[in-house]
From TrEMBL:
Keyword RNA-binding in annotation: no
Main localisation: other
A GO molecular-function annotation: carbohydrate binding
Family that this chain belongs to: Belongs to the glycosyl hydrolase 2 family.
Name of protein: Beta-glucuronidase
Reactions performed catalytically: a beta-D-glucuronoside + H2O = D-glucuronate + an alcohol
Keyword field contains Transferase: no
Record function comment: Plays an important role in the degradation of dermatan and keratan sulfates.
Enzyme Commission no: 3.2.1.31
This protein's GO CC annotations: extracellular space; lysosome
Species for this entry: Drosophila ananassae (Fruit fly)
Domain Glycoside hydrolase family 2 catalytic stretches: 354-646
Keywords for the protein's UniProt record, in alphabetical order: Glycoprotein, Glycosidase, Hydrolase, Lysosome, Membrane, Signal, Transmembrane, Transmembrane helix
Record-level GO BP terms: carbohydrate metabolic process; glucuronoside catabolic process
Length: 670
């Protein structure tokens, strides 16, 4: 959205705030009457293949320490008006150093954490003379939260709204080759009622007059900044712009098929002349060529793989996460090599019905987590050390899945999940969605379009989550989610759709539009606090009711209890490690009952690790429902969960149990 409009919206919201009673009245009306929502088209993403080097492409990282300026919150457009992007930021304002990638919030010692509005980044970089040759140069951001405006050498090259998703621009004509260049980024973290996720900006009195306050209902800190890597990369003039891959297994998983379709930029593909074509080669892990094919003029084709090694989830097979390498070569009519792009491909099938979800024909029971991209100091910034540690912990504990609650996670982590056989329920950034409007619907659909475009080739992605805890009790929610779900299906029919719902099943209007029902519930925590005797039956009853209402497979997508590491109280008492263990154990009992019913397909703990939230009297330094601390060390419950996840793996998927899972206690005499 244009900054001016956002600011107008902001004013509107401030104005609306002071007419609270009127709004409340309208809200009641709005909930009882369904808004007429139209299924308008949304912009469709192009390109944006993950930057990879090849014999035709070079990749150059712009990560490092950038210069940073925080705008005056009362004057967020000053930098635009004063054209800070026309020269080095330091010529307009004093700058401070800022790491990229990272959230900016927890880097300084003053209160940058709670800043609302725009901030600016810039840096200089060199572009080699050799890049001037007959090729294109692209500037790509892994993600900037929430809205980004980017200038190169003072010229605006791209604007993007929505965190956690990549965007790029061709910068061939604005770069100066063989010399220094400047990149400037303005980032706005303001969330309003039509952003995804939603928030509210209000102006409230403080000791110095009035101040702008950002509020939101979702339960994680609104970290902002350049969160993921920034790359410059080169491509030939005629390039592979898109690669779409789907896979299939045949003959009881003995043979496999990879279908690919490619689109090209920079040359009109003339189907009749068949002038451009694709040579696709598939290599196994040892680098042996196992299949190849030459496309027709439509740049599509199939590769047949005999004696295939399917992609299996972790613990469902001795060799999980098996990946082939697909080499896509774009060739001219005279066989001249124009461009090469390589990506990893996992061969697997997904299917689902009213009771189960299957991978390669085998029924799946999800044992996983809701997570966050969150850590000390770097906030939501990409951190490879953290990512690798997290995957080590996931494997140590025997999990086979996680949900990217509540937004798309880094592309690097998706690649890692592919490699390690961790199944992903891939969630778009729609969280606590309410006040459904036409504009919000467009943004929400766009977030799904960008997500599916980015992640459609990952074997680890087994399901799309179209929202977390949307307020699905109104009639408008019915039509809104019908449009969102149908749109998602129109983009990808190969994966089922879910949403993590907290609205009671008696009121929910979204479940009928989903393929799999996921529900979040905090028995003994938000309801019947402390009552461990009120967990098991409630979980069973609610799951049964969801299944009865919709006749679809059911997942418990969140359960848990805040736990302060090191707090021990016997008998169990809220916030203690004992309490968290008891809450989990009562859920395990319910899950085992539910598993016997044949349609209960998974359990996801909330949360993998403790994480930062907005300040609130319900949160001590953040949300403490982690099985691991924010520093990624286990709480006592981690050892309990590990025993369960491996026991399930052994019973359901015949996996081996790690030797250290039961420590020696005594010899039992029977
Ligand atoms: C939920 C939300 C999650 C919260 C969690 C909690 O239902 O989906 O974002 O963090 O509850 O701990 O309150």
């Amino acid at each position: 959205m244009h900054l001016k409009i956002r600011l107008t919206c902001r004013k509107y919201e401030i104005w609306a705030f002071s007419f609270f009673s009127l709004v409340t009245g309208l809200y009641v009306l709005h909930s009882s009457i369904a808004l007429l929502l139209l299924n308008k088209e949304v912009p469709i993403t192009r390109g944006m293949l993950y930057p990879r080097e090849s014999e035709t492409r070079e990749v150059h990282s712009l990560d490092g320490i950038w210069n940073f300026v925080r705008s005056d919150p009362d004057n967020p457009t000053q930098g635009i008006r004063d054209k800070w992007f026309e020269k080095d930021l330091s010529k307009s304002q004093p700058t401070i150093p800022m790491p990229v990638p990272a959230s900016y919030n927890d880097i300084t010692t003053d209160n940058l954490r709670d800043h609302v509005g725009t901030v600016w980044y810039d840096r200089r970089f060199f572009v080699p003379r050799s890049w001037r040759t007959d090729q294109r140069v692209w500037l790509r951001f892994g993600s900037v939260h929430y809205e980004a405006y980017v200038w190169v050498n003072g010229k605006r090259v791209v604007k993007h709204e929505m965190g956690h998703l990549p965007f790029e621009a061709e910068v061939t004509d604005v770069l100066m080759y063989g010399s220094e260049n400047r990149i400037t980024v303005m980032c706005d973290n303001a969330l309003i009622q039509t952003s995804v996720p939603q928030g509210k900006i209000t102006e409230v009195p403080n000791d110095n007059g009035m101040t702008i306050v950002q509020s939101y209902t979702f339960d994680f800190f609104n970290y902002a900044g350049i969160h993921r890597s920034v790359h410059l990369y080169t491509t030939p003039k005629t390039l592979i712009e898109e690669v779409k891959v789907t896979t299939n297994l045949k003959n009881q998983n003995a043979d496999g098929e990879v279908s690919y379709s490619v689109s090209v930029k920079g040359s009109v593909v003339n189907e009749a002349d068949n002038d451009l074509h694709i040579q696709a080669n598939l290599y196994d892990k040892e680098g042996l060529l196992v299949a190849n094919a030459t496309s027709d003029g439509k740049l599509e084709g199939e590769l047949q793989v005999a004696e295939v090694k399917p992609w299996w989830p972790y613990l469902m097979h001795p060799d999980p996460g098996y990946l082939y390498q697909l080499e896509i070569k774009l060739l001219a009519a005279n066989e001249e090599l124009l461009d090469v792009y390589r990506l990893k491909v996992g061969l697997r099938t997904l299917s689902w019905d009213q009771t189960q979800f299957l991978i390669n024909g085998k029924s799946v029971y999800f044992r996983g987590f809701g997570r966050h991209e969150d850590s000390d100091i770097r906030g939501k910034g990409l951190d490879n050390a953290l990512m690798v540690r997290d995957f080590n912990l996931l494997k140590w504990i025997g999990a086979n899945a996680y949900r990217t609650s509540h937004y798309p996670y880094s592309e690097e982590s998706m690649q890692f999940a592919d490699e390690h056989g961790i199944m992903i329920i891939d969630e778009c950034p729609s969280v606590d969605t309410e006040n459904f409007s036409q504009e919000l619907l467009g943004k929400h659909k766009s977030s799904l379009e960008q997500l599916i475009h980015r992640d459609r080739n990952h074997p680890s992605v087994v399901m799309w989550s179209i929202a977390n805890e949307p307020r699905t009790g109104s009639l408008t929610a019915d039509s809104y989610f019908s449009l969102v779900a149908n749109f998602t299906r129109s983009l990808d029919k190969t994966r089922p759709i879910t949403a993590a719902i907290a609205t009671p099943y008696t009121k929910d209007q979204a479940g009928r539009h989903l393929d799999i029902i996921s529900f979040n519930r905090y028995n003994a925590w938000y309801t019947n606090t402390g009552r461990l005797d009120m967990v098991t039956q409630n979980v069973i009853d609610e799951a049964v009711a969801w299944n009865k209402a919709y006749q679809k497979p059911v997942i418990m997508s969140e359960y848990g209890a805040d736990t302060l590491e090191g707090l021990h109280i016997q008998p169990a008492y809220v916030w203690s490690e004992e309490f968290q263990m008891e809450v989990f154990s009562r859920h395990f009992k319910a899950f085992d009952e539910l598993r016997k019913k044949g349609w209960f397909i998974g359990e996801f703990v909330w949360n993998f690790a403790d994480f930062k939230t907005a300040q609130s009297y319900t949160r001590v330094g953040g949300n403490k429902k982690g099985v691991f601390t924010r520093a990624r060390q286990p709480k006592a419950v981690a050892h309990l969960l590990r025993k369960r996840y491996f026991a399930l793996g052994r019973d359901l998927d015949q996996c081996n149990i790690p030797e250290d899972i039961f420590i020696y206690i005594a010899e039992w005499k029977s």
